[in-house]
Inverse folding.
């Protein structure tokens, strides 16, 4: 008798969104784009394309640190009926965000389970600063946890820990990002570092470690740009398929027919 073929478990599908920049007012615009409209369009597309297991949003949830954007986000996340995890960005008022979002905004340094995978949620924001920094206590706690846990892990934060090739935004990343990357590279169960802030898709390997940015659900920044520049690409998100053996498949999906466009003459925001 021939042995039965082995059944391969379906991978977990994680939706990675970033930089919604939601406003208190429904029609609030960032560089000419209505961020509530673009966020809702991206979320709808992401949820419609295939069943998902969880949603991650890596910061700049609100642009104006007001209640309206966080309340809208909470309502939309509740409607997904999925596990949803948000981390702090430099535009966020994190105490207010945590008060409104509740369990959708776990404490900084939380380790959450997604099947046999783990998500380590870091806070790279600094009050009143655009650049990022990870407090030594967070790095120490993450290192101690990694010493005793071997589940495949994704480390998630807002700011980019490596240069993405745009000089102006690279000056505003995590100022101790090299320490984080070294820590993750020294622990093979860390499969990837996920981040936002750069408003563009990005992917890089450092050894077996992947560094992955999601495009913004709002305005896109031009990649490989020396100074501030807006891109014409539409909003989007990153999809990650997390396999039981620890490997990742990932792709970036954009709204190809999105009708609104940013102000290409903008020199900053």
């Amino acid at each position: 008798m021939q042995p039965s073929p082995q059944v391969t478990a379906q991978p977990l599908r994680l939706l990675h969104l970033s930089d919604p920049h939601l406003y208190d007012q429904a029609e609030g615009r960032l560089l000419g784009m209505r961020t509530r409209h673009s966020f809702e369009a991206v979320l709808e597309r992401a949820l419609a394309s295939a069943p998902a297991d969880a949603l991650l949003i890596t910061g700049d949830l609100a642009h104006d640190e007001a209640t309206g954007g966080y309340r809208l986000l909470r309502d939309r996340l509740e409607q997904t009926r999925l596990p949803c995890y948000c981390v702090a960005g430099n535009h966020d008022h994190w105490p207010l965000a945590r008060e409104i979002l509740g369990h959708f905004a776990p404490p900084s340094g939380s380790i959450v389970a997604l099947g046999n995978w783990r998500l380590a949620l870091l806070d790279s924001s600094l009050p009143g600063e655009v650049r990022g920094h990870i407090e030594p206590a967070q790095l120490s706690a993450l290192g101690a946890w990694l010493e005793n846990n071997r589940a495949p892990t994704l480390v998630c934060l807002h700011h980019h820990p490596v240069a993405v090739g745009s000089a102006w935004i690279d000056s505003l990343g995590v100022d101790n990002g090299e320490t984080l990357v070294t820590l993750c590279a020294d622990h093979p169960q860390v499969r990837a570092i996920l981040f936002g802030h750069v408003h563009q898709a990005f992917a890089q390997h450092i050894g077996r470690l992947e560094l992955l940015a999601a495009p913004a659900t709002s305005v896109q920044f031009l990649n490989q740009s020396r100074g501030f520049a807006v891109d014409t690409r539409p909003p989007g998100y990153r999809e990650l398929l997390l396999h039981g053996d620890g490997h990742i498949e990932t792709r970036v999906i954009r709204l190809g027919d999105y009708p609104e466009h940013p102000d290409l003459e903008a020199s900053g925001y």
Q: What stands out?
A: The first strand starts at residue 12 and ends at 17.
